[in-house]
Amino acid sequence: MSSTYTLISFDLCPYVERSRVVLHEKGQAFEQVFIDLKNKPDWFLKLSPRGKVPVLVVDEVPIFESAVINEFLEEVLPEPALLPEGAVERARARAWIAFTNDVLMEGLGTLWFAGGDAQQVAQGLKTVRGALERIEEALRAREEGTYFSGASFGLVDATLAPVFTRWASMEAMGWGALLDGLEEVQAYSRALLARESVQAARAEGLTEKMVALLRGE
Ligand SMILES: N[C@@H](CCC(=O)N[C@@H](CS)C(=O)NCC(=O)O)C(=O)O
Q1: CATH classification at residue 173
Q2: pLDDT digits (tens, 9 = 90+) for 75-116
Q3: Is 76 among the residues known to form the active site?
């Protein structure tokens, strides 16, 4: 009997969006249960030790942390492969996923939750720009291809895609210049936004909802 997959979600969450991208890439059917993060239900808190989404429930077993969920999906649904073949390239992909989480997402969080604090905005902009510059260098160092690890779409791309699906809301907030001069990142963003799985994973009305959230409306 095949497994059932239920993704516990919040529609604006970039971490949930990554796992949706991977599920779409794998062609795996899944259910979604949306919760209110301001009023987390008890059943959710029982499943999620950190109280965070996403949680993927596989045949009643909850798996948390988007990077772990995505690696799990790669293991149980090997086609199409979303990690490169060689050990070095696989390690490199995992390292950039960690970098995205610990540096880029951290900087974006500082920016998104600054709530009008100018010092916090400046700190967020600096961290995000620094992270994007490192990504630009990594993209320049590629020998070929449109995606992070080359010609094939992979887990690093699924991890970074939600940053770029939120870019129109970043522009609306006046932060679009963060990409100035980063030609490879700009081309990479266009390639990600054109990807079917990225479009399918994107929440309805994402830009408008993100802008409202960022403006504290
Ligand atoms: N490291 C986690 C981060 C997930 C995360 O921060 N989710 C946010 C929503 S985007 C959340 O559930 N926040 C609720 C809370 O912290 O109380 C992952 O990659 O899954």
Answers
A1: 1.20.1050.10
A2: 999 999 999 999 999 999 999 999 999 999 999 999 999 998
A3: no
